Amino acid sequence: MVRQARSEATRRRIITSAVDLFNEMGYPATGLGDIIERAEMTKGALYYHFESKESLATAIIEEGSANLFDAFRNICQSSAPALECVIHGVFVVADMLGTDSVARSGTQLMRAFAEFNDAAARTYNGWLDEMSRRVADAIDEGDLRSDLDPRAVSAVIVSAMIGAEVLASATSSGADVLPRIAHVWDVLLPAVVAEESQSYFREFLARETMRHTATSAET
Hints:
Layout: H1 2-25, H2 32-39, H3 43-49, H4 53-76, H5 82-99, H6 101-113, H7 118-140, H8 150-172, H9 177-192, H10 198-218
Keywords: DNA-binding, Transcription, Transcription regulation
Organism: Mycobacterium deserti
DNA-binding region: 31-50
């Protein structure tokens, strides 16, 4: 048990060091030697847990994605209407990208490995599946238009989430991701929300925007 705890602590130190370096220097510029030096351990200790820099990146993608998924799913387990949960959950996920270094690094690595890393593909497909279920619930509840295809709407939402994060990272080091998410919903709601629910969800979006941007400003 003690050996297992020590092994997990070593693995955690490697991941933490890699995340810090990837966020500071970028993935391509960071070598395994840099990670070993930052973690203050031997090359053998690193290779015991990770066979390559890519396998280490995969572990970060999986852990960061799990953190974001867990936060989103916890919100969606509430008794609130499905569309409220989706809007609130997207804001929370965007907010976590500024506070959770593993989630931020994992998201950046997903972009870098999107074409040839199974973990990235699984994560994107997982988001589409999760979002499709919530959108289908919102259609059943009458808040989204009944003629919509849940998978198509989900693809738009997930694509917008990714795009907002990419633009924020490129233009403000992620500082304006929450206002960008608010703009996404401001444009999207009139196109997908049922007419009788439009007024309510515009007010809901305004409250969510105010709450999350105010919290972000305080931190």
